[in-house]
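Quick question, first post here. What does this chain look like in 3D?
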Amino acid sequence: MGRLRTHWLSLATQDRAFFHVALSHYAGNYGLSRSERDPMEAVRFRMEAMKIINERLAIVKTALTDGTLGTVASLASYEVSIPHGERGLRC
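> Answer (accepted):
Ran it through. Tokens below.
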């Protein structure tokens, strides 16, 4: 396993928000691989990750941790990788 993937997996097992993002990625990729829209499970996991991040950002001490930064980067990466019409929720 590559160094980045090993670190990513380690962070997912140590950080609650990042764990939810990892589950969201797996659920979303599974749905897209079956030509389905973003499954509701993936959306729920992302929402939980965002809730945790919002709680962390309210406290300066927890705002800039590896888990927080990794979660935000992972959420952003996932959003730009999904074609606009494929998302489960539309604005």
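The radius of gyration is 13 Å.
DSSP finds five helices and no strands in the chain.
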